[in-house]
Design a protein that fits this description.
Helix content: 25-40%
Number of domains: 2
CATH superfamily of the largest domain: Type I PLP-dependent aspartate aminotransferase-like (Major domain)
Distance between the termini: 32 Å
Largest sheet: 7 strands, mixed
Shape: globular
Number of helices: 13
Oligomer: single chain
Structural class: alpha/beta
CATH topology of the largest domain: Aspartate Aminotransferase, domain 2
CATH class of the largest domain: Alpha Beta
Order of helices and strands: EHHEHEHEHEEEHEHEEHHEEHEHHEH
CATH architecture of the largest domain: 3-Layer(aba) Sandwich
Strand order of the largest sheet: 2-10-9-8-7-3-4
Radius of gyration: 22 Å
Number of strands: 14
């Protein structure tokens, strides 16, 4: 039985070059990057080389990169770091209905602390309208004291807009450049979760207009447990944690040197292979879609009309329980998912799929296939040969399915 991994949006295998780069920092180069002795300074140099590599991947300056434990912490640091500073001043945040739970659950916690949040809807393709974001912005209310230079904020207004660069379940690419211009014109901070686009699409933070941008190592063939937050120079950000003066006082704690080195090497590989990988993987993705929709009656691609990341497809197989199909395919050596890995086992249908208007039964019948650097023609051919039969077998057990 062949083993085919089609769940790269969940996590990616660590590249051999990344593992090789990390290994010395688990052993002979095990110094603390904050120590002034030679082993510590070699570790510091390795961290700074990695910082430069991550910055180059997104068109930033090295000093604007803050290393974190991953995408979730980066998102939390961005949202709490900006909106949490003014929760008592009726601060307002704008986000979308299809964000990753690292953003949505953070927004819910901010609401408990007094921050108001607007969840802008998306269209049937999973794309948010920049105009809807614009209309959601609330102005600040200020009061000036007479005969004084003192100015008091009565209402913080909209402090932050957070819109993901691409959706993790659908692959839909959001109009972040337009939203970035809207945020800049309104003097509002703009954060984008680029966990699913870093290394897949060209990113330049200045072109996006992002003040904050999240990435994660394990989505780009790096190790789990490390990520980064881009913080534009001049952005005022309150830390989540308190301790030492690491990461320019924005993220205290002894640096995860092996992980950071791994992220840096993964960023270099992603930059080197980005264009070639994107073209090759997109062709494989398109073939997989075309064949499955052609061979499985009533199957259709969710958000097929939207711009998408090159590696992602989300397909609904009506009259099938998605989790049952994931298990059936796993038994045949194919790894895929029903959506976000952090939502596995959830009883409710995907919030992303219901947000684009899918009925709950179709949302539960949808599978995400996400390809990667190591996906081959043979992998896709095997998936095409197996999936239609697995769907048919499960449909035979459905009391509501009728062959046409």
């Amino acid at each position: 039985m062949k083993n085919v991994y089609l769940d790269h949006n969940s996590t990616t295998p660590v590249a051999p070059e990344v593992l090789e780069a990390m290994l010395p920092y688990f052993s002979r180069e095990g110094g603390n990057a904050s120590s002034i002795h030679s082993p510590g300074q070699r570790a510091r140099a390795a961290v700074e080389r990695a910082r430069a590599s991550v910055a180059a991947l997104i068109g930033a300056r090295p000093a604007e990169i803050v290393f974190t434990s991953g995408g979730t912490e980066s998102d939390n640091l961005a949202l709490f770091g900006i909106a949490g500073m003014a929760a008592s001043l009726h601060a307002h945040v704008i986000t979308t209905a299809i964000e990753h739970h690292a953003v949505l659950n953070t927004c819910q916690e901010l609401e408990k602390r007094g921050v108001e949040v607007t969840y802008v809807p998306v269209n049937s393709q999973g794309v948010v309208s920049p105009e809807d974001v614009l209309h959601a912005i609330r102005p600040r209310v200020m009061r000036e004291q007479k005969d004084s230079e003192f100015t008091e904020a009565l209402n913080a207004g909209t402090m932050l807009i957070s819109v993901m660069h691409a959706n993790n379940e659908l692959g839909t690419v959001e109009p972040v450049e337009e939203i970035g211009k809207i945020a800049a014109a309104a003097d509002v901070y703009f954060h984008t979760d680029a966990v699913q686009t870093a290394g897949k699409l060209p990113i330049r933070v200045d072109e996006i207009g992002a003040d904050l941008l999240s990435i994660s190592a394990h989505k780009i063939r790096g190790p789990k447990g490390v990520g980064a937050l881009y913080v534009r120079k001049g952005t005022r950000l309150r830390p989540l944690f308190y301790g030492g003066h690491h990461e320019r006082d924005r993220r205290p704690g002894t640096e995860n040197v092996p992980g950071i080195v791994g992220l840096g090497r993964a960023a270099e590989l992603a930059a080197e292979n980005l264009a070639a990988d994107a073209a090759r993987v997109a062709a494989l993705r398109d073939r997989l879609e075309r064949e499955l929709v052609g061979r499985v009656p009533q199957a259709r691609v969710n958000s097929a009309g939207a711009p998408r990341t090159p590696n992602t497809t989300n397909i609904v197989f009506p009259y099938v329980e998605g989790e049952a199909l994931v298990i059936a395919l796993d038994l045949k050596g194919i790894a895929c998912s029903t959506g976000a890995a952090c939502s596995a086992g959830a009883v409710e249908p995907s919030h992303v799929l219901t947000a684009i208007g899918l009925a709950p039964e179709d949302a539960r019948a949808s599978l995400r296939f996400s390809l990667g650097h190591d996906t081959t023609d043979e992998d896709v051919e095997y998936a095409i040969s197996v999936i239609p039969g697995a769907v048919e077998q499960l449909r035979e057990l459905s009391p509501v399915y009728q062959k046409k």
